[in-house]
Design goal:
By secondary structure, the chain is mainly alpha-helical. The chain has helices spanning about 25-30, 40-55, 65-70, 75-85, 90-105; strands at about 1-5, 15-20. It has a two-stranded antiparallel sheet. InterPro entries: Phage_TAC_19.
């Protein structure tokens, strides 16, 4: 399941979720790497990521513009990484525990 929280024009957080995402989206996500899009600069890359995220939702209220307007600038990379973890079936709690263990060494 994909979950995405976006701030609306009024500053309130709206919650979106998608219960079914076809495996084709997983393949698209795996191909979404800087190496496959060498002509994109950092801002274009952010737009490409937001466009991909929006394409995974059936809800037409989730758009590239809505994502870019509804996520704080300093949170965008974190939101995108969390989104990818959800798409790839990675448990964020296990990732956090693993990163925490690595920092101790």
């Amino acid at each position: 399941m994909l979950k995405l929280d976006l701030r609306n024009k009024d500053g309130k957080v709206e919650h979106f979720q998608e219960t079914f995402v076809p495996a084709l989206k997983l393949i698209e996500g795996l191909k979404l790497t800087p190496e496959n899009f060498p002509d994109l600069d950092e801002s274009d890359w952010m737009e490409k990521n937001a466009e991909f995220m929006a394409s995974c939702f059936e809800d037409k209220n989730v758009t590239k513009k809505r994502i870019l307007d509804g996520v704080a600038a300093w949170d965008f990379n974190k939101v995108f990484n969390t989104f990818n973890q959800q798409l790839f079936g990675i448990d964020p709690k296990k990732v956090a525990a693993s990163e925490s263990a690595e920092k101790k060494h």
